[in-house]
Write a structure and sequence with these properties.
Rossmann fold, about 325 residues, globular, four-stranded parallel sheet
Amino acid sequence: MFTLPSPISKITSQLFAGTGLEVFVKRDELIHPIVSGNKWRKLKYFFTGDLPQHIVSFGGAYSNHIHALSFVAANHQIPLSLYIRGEQTWLDRPERLSSTIADCLHNKAQLHFVDRASYRRKDDADFKKELLQAYPEQTLLIPEGGCDQVALTGVAEILSEQQNDFDYILCPVGSATTLAGLIKASDNKQTIVGIAALKQADYLRQRVMELVGPSIKDKNWQLLTEFHAGGFGKVPEQILQLVVDVYQQHGIILDPIYTSKMWLGFNQLITQNYFRAGSKVLLLHTGGLQGWRGLLQQNKVTSDYLSKIGLPQAN
């Protein structure tokens, strides 16, 4: 069921023709139809060895993380409790549930909706200790987005699955876990470039340094924060058109939140002559295609648009 190692596609474009650049896309969105992209990478080593009796995690109503986690937990028959940023009344009105949340319920996850003030405490040590007291002793708490040292081991395998002679490796950034894992696993001659999907993402630099540890001083990396296209979850016409163009030119479907912002950043970096001539560049597709369903539910895209980008199935 899992496609590993995920394939790498070489792409060509008039945008970088004549630069001598060789550009490749690591197709992690093809790993699995549900547990795709960096979600599998980050979750993999939480589900090896002795399995927990219970799992607790966090996410928003359209979170790729909780969507993938609920599927994996269900397949391992591990009870899962999810703390969702949102309103409890959603459960009383099924028509308001996101398709992501509906899938989590189908996977038998127990949902707990919390207000935004409470949700902001999710990384607070006292809050987590208090929360875990309600669960069995062998309960595993997985942070939002899978942001944990355990996840870095899975992310590192992105670079070890094939010949790793890339000069630049680009990835989208949400929790910064994938960026940290790539930095930690990279050759010191490589440059790792994270493209933030969030509008105010400067704080993630500190998170990266904490996750990578002392070895970060020997690494070449950047977190670029200017390609968010209006902020997290924003999908302006610029992004929608870019996704159509990429599908028509390369047959690759981008997600609306992360990889589309990365590709936007890549295109603009090309025009800025960011990359050394003759370099090999790897773009990481981190999956997340289920996110289009949420935009359809919110009337931010139409079924006709999804058909144009290779997603005729809306559900």
